[in-house]
């Protein structure tokens, strides 16, 4: 009995797939270990009889699984490319001063037209130290257009001249008192200012003079009261020479006196031009500033030269707030140089965020950022000015 059962089991296990399935699932595994795998039918519950006429489809062996890298194929290695340095948008990058002088028209080429040809910018050496001081040259920093850098030039040019061993007196002749505030002095704390100097005959320039934080540079401060001086001076005799009479007493003590004028061509500005030996005109490289320059030179300065102060001369036109990245600024500068030639300073003051910072802190850029491009530009201007004055 056992032998027949085992023989039947063996025979069932060796049937081909076409002959059906084994009648029992309790076949010993050691008897079928060498036979190929046979597909099995779906699971049939104990209550459902097996149907021998239903032949399931042959099983299809599945493809071997291939491990897949979840990260995907490696990206090709791209050589790193140098990028521009990251600049904080809250603080604009300082604009480098141009390496060339303002572009002036070159001689005509082959008899036709003018070609623009840049000239290498000259370098001005430090002047020799002075053995004595005075008498001072008085220079008025004038432009009837506001916001062109008059006060910034007065502060930083004065400080740069003091570094060269010159004794400098700054005169704040603007009711806004920007020069006074820009040097860290509160106008409201002063007992007397330039207003008292020009209105009260008992107050002299020496009475209102104050020391600044820069060694060798003093200040005649101003305040808002000066705005009423023009009306009060109208009835005065020789009202155009009021400032000149006051500064004359201080000439022997200084080498240079710089007057910061208000942005107008009123009586205060005429007083400054009458007292001055020369004029420095800061010029923003912008169209409207260029239009005003012609009126200042051809009308105001020429009228003062002819009627009041024949010794007055233009010492130089200073390009300020220059942005060499813009075509408009370069065109304006080229036009100014083409018209005024060597009157234009070789030094160009570029636009930088450092200047507003120094005005707020009340010190010149030569002490706030002594190694900056702007500080070196004003030192270059001071050397160039001393070279022009001789």
UniProtKB/TrEMBL annotation:
Annotated ranges, domain AAA: 137-314
Ranges where the record places region Disordered: 1-134
Biased composition (Pro residues): 119-130
Superkingdom, natural source: Bacteria
InterPro entries: AAA_dom, DNA_Partitioning_ATPase, P-loop_NTPase
Comp. bias (Low complexity): 62-90
Biased composition (Polar residues): 1-28
Pfam families for the chain: AAA_31
Protein role: May play a role in septum formation.
Family affiliation: Belongs to the ParA family.
Name the UniProt record assigns to this protein: Chromosome partitioning protein
Organism name: Actinopolymorpha rutila
